[in-house]
Amino acid sequence: MGHPYAKEKADLLTRLRRIEGQVRGVQKMIEEDRYCVDLLTQLAAIKNATHKVALSILEAHTRGCVADAIHHHTSEDEKIDELMDVIRQFIK
Amino acid sequence: MGHPYAKEKADLLTRLRRIEGQVRGVQKMIEEDRYCVDLLTQLAAIKNATHKVALSILEAHTRGCVADAIHHHTSEDEKIDELMDVIRQFIK
Amino acid sequence: MGHPYAKEKADLLTRLRRIEGQVRGVQKMIEEDRYCVDLLTQLAAIKNATHKVALSILEAHTRGCVADAIHHHTSEDEKIDELMDVIRQFIK
Amino acid sequence: MGHPYAKEKADLLTRLRRIEGQVRGVQKMIEEDRYCVDLLTQLAAIKNATHKVALSILEAHTRGCVADAIHHHTSEDEKIDELMDVIRQFIK
């Protein structure tokens, strides 16, 4: 099996380039001594966009790799352990 | 008053450049069809690092702008409204 | 299929009873006009404990219902849609 | 100074009693072997409601205790340290 996010690849790259631009934007705002609350609003937007990219990859992973492992009974438990470990990094 | 994060400016910029590098790293991983769970782990690290930068700016803002407004009784209520609005974007 | 959290049932109930006690504890603290920061610390503990119960059920659900649907090719897509919708309520 | 959440006291208690009811509701659902996704939806609602109570107390605390400490220059730094520590428990 290839990468389960093949179909979303272009979309994910576009979204990540936008996040990269937002992160550079915050650097510029700091260099220009911009107001804290504007920085914080921008950082919240970066966090939200990062969560959305993560949810898209999580969905592709579940439909692809996890479902595949379950179908073929290959390392099914390990795949679900791994999935839960990474979800735990987001739900704290 | 200038920017309350003057002292942390260099540190904040270093951390944001590192986040920018991590975001570019995820793009590269996607282009190389890397494993979903590795992408997700990296995205969780970006989220954590973004939260930490936000907490530093939030602290500087509270010690600086908010305390200043309270001392001088100038738009104290507005400053706290604004602070709460931005915190609400992180605690959902 | 029954409930996939059969094995954890007693443990989940114990943890939820503890959360219920913590929620009642905060009510008591408010009635006694206790210090805000102590209330907030207790509310953070309730949030953390709620997340942990949710992660346990999420894991049981993925190993049980989702894997089951995938094995039997029965409403596999719907199950994963449903799973993602509920995860989205926690990753915002 | 008394408790800065005096005005919201009745409202906070109502909301916490509702959360307590929701936590008991999840226990009942588990005893009845209800569907995982319904449990998770309910747990997300508990988390959301807990966050909202925390934000109300955080706001009262900032307007009350923190502003008070800043006005009187009494343990201003300690109050803000304490505030940041508790916010950090919610933004992870």
From TrEMBL, chains A, B, C, D:
Keyword DNA-binding assigned: yes
GO biological process, one term: negative regulation of DNA-templated transcription
One Pfam family recorded for the sequence: Trns_repr_metal
Gene Ontology molecular-function annotations: DNA binding; metal ion binding
Keywords: DNA-binding
Name this protein carries in UniProt: DNA-binding transcriptional regulator, FrmR family
Native organism: Alicyclobacillus hesperidum
Lineage: Bacteria, Bacillati, Bacillota, Bacilli, Bacillales
